[in-house]
Amino acid sequence: MAAAMARAMSTAASGTPAVSLDTINPQILKCEYAVRGEIVTHAQNLQQELQKSPDALPFDEILYCNIGNPQSLGQQPVTYFREVLSLCDHPALLDKSETHALFSSDAIERAWQILEKIPGRATGAYSHSQGIKGLRDEIAAGIAARDGFHASGDNIFLTDGASPAVHMMLQLLISSEKDGILCPIPQYPLYSASIALRGGSLVPYFLDEETGWGLEVDELKKQLEEARSRGITVRALVVINPGNPTGQVLGEENQKKIVEFCKNEGLVLLADEVYQANIYVEDKQFHSFKKIARSLGYTDDDLPLVSFQSVSKGYYGECGKRGGYMEITGFSPEVREQIYKVASVNLCSNVSGQILASLVMNPPKAGDESFESFMVERDGILSSLARRAKALEEAFNSLEGITCNKAEGAMYLFPRLHLPQKAIGAAQAAGTAPDAYYAKRLLEATGIVVVPGSGFGQVPGTWHFRCTILPPEDKIPAIISRFKEFHEKFMDEFRD
In which pathway does it act (predicted)? Predict the structure, then answer.
């Protein structure tokens, strides 16, 4: 005690800051999150400049194509979901006669049903740490209807979006730098950041760009063996399907091989399935990994599997409501108890997000008053996203020095930049990665914000950027026009 006080007095006397980069947790210094990184910070500064002086820059607005945040770019919330949520958050409306003129009858009925499941009908109260039992049961029923296999509300943990669920599972699995997690490259930087914060090792496996970002089991085996040869205990495999940032949708046979691989190698399968509603090609459909595992005859005793879902993506795009869940199967009661303990530290996820998660997994059905209008809204959003993805993909592929795979699903394109050597040299002289250099120049010339591929990982010597397909459809032609003009000038400037 005396020694600690002496150190504190010495620090104060010397004028050394109590907190500095030398004294904070070194894992935080290793953590990076490019989706809201340096390029976005620069964009926000430019936006402030525009607000002060609208004519100061060669564009009149910042177009944020860096993050899957649909409503920030004009997507409207789904009416039925918001009606139910409004009524649950303000139950007094249910007793007013005029409510029936303003809200659909099935939204009113659903709000009553949900409130009956919430103790005291209090959406402003803490809930069970795992989430409200009745809502978990509804989500399980939605999963069972989707997959054709039993699901239990006891296996559902409701979380503030999918991200806290990912953090929770990686915290459970990583105890030192010798614990490794197999992650796709390119990957969503939530995984690399979370692994770094917990002091683990990211074990990369490369998706095959030449085959439309294919996930090859031979590549998984190769990287697993290489990691084990370095003394790393690989604990889990992360699969993002549909892919982020790559937009591919896995085929059923491919998924079966992945499940068999995890089973044979004793790995936990972490299935990021938050884009399951975002499919844009007719020859592909979403199959959950739990459905694949059960169709192969695997039970809870055979394979530890965690499936992540969120209300932030899909056609619903309710990012700010922070709703999501993980379904945990194949873990012993003793381990599940520890997961529950970690969930309890956060008390509970927000109740509005819990309600939305139950609605997303149980939307209106045929015969309900809201069904037809709901389908019009849902299909309108998804078909528009598909058109936007195709328009951007074709535009990128029409340009010299860019190749772009089709977005089969999710909300992104991940074009490859074939940059002239002079551009790479200019980036090196500026002390930055070539794709980051390109993204910054793009922003400063057009106001378009994309994320450099180096923030997601990529095959060494290749350069990419991630672009969302979320800007309003009527703005896509202008974005394409601005982008083409910039790119052609950039290539001319640095032509070898």
Answer: Photosynthesis; C4 acid pathway; Amino-acid degradation; L-alanine degradation via transaminase pathway; pyruvate from L-alanine: step 1/1
Phi-psi region of 317 (alpha: psi -120 to 50; beta: other; left: phi over 0): left
pLDDT above 60 (res 468): yes
- Nearest residue to 214 via CA among 256, 248, 189, 239: 248
What is this structure's pTM? 0.88
Phi and psi of 434, rounded to 5°?
-55, -40
Non-local (6+) Cβ contacts of 9 within 8 A are none
Residue 32 to residues 38, 116, 195, 455, 460, Cα–Cα distance (Å): 10, 43, 11, 8, 18
Rounded Cα distance between 441 and 444, Å, is 5
Read off the pLDDT of residues 87-124 as tens digits, 9 standing for 90 and up: 999 888 888 888 887 888 899 899 999 998 988 877 77
Q: Are 419 and 438 in contact (CB under 8 A)?
A: yes
How many Cα atoms sit within 13 Å of 214 on the Cβ side?
A: 12
How many angstroms separate the Cα of 119 from the Cα of each of 82, 90, 126, 152, 373?
A: 21, 15, 10, 21, 31
* pLDDT tens sequence across 250-294: 999 999 999 999 999 999 999 999 999 999 988 899 999 999 999
- Residue 177 DSSP SS3: coil
Whole-Å CA distances, 318 to 322, 324, 396: 7, 10, 29
Q: Is residue 250 left, alpha or beta, with left meaning phi > 0 and alpha meaning psi from -120 to 50? A: beta
Asked whether the beta carbons of 357 and 324 are under 8 A apart, the reply is yes
Using DSSP's 3-state secondary structure scheme, residue 218 falls into helix
Beta strands in 354-441, from DSSP E residues, in sequence order: 402-403, 412-413, 416-417
Q: What is the DSSP string of 420-480?
A: -HHHHHHHHHTTS-HHHHHHHHHHHHH-EE-EEGGGT--STT-EEEEEES-S-GGGHHHHH
Taking alpha carbons only, the member of 318, 280, 392 closest to residue 76 is: 318
Q: How far apart are CA 242 and CA 250, in angstroms?
A: 7
The tokens describing 223, both together, are 């990287």
Q: Is the pLDDT of residue 329 over 80?
A: yes
- Give kind and range of the element (H or E) at residue 134: helix 133-147
How far CA 310 is from CA of 59, 319, 327, in Å, comes to 34, 8, 12
Identify whether the C-beta of residue 234 lies closer than 8 Å to the C-beta of residue 180.
yes
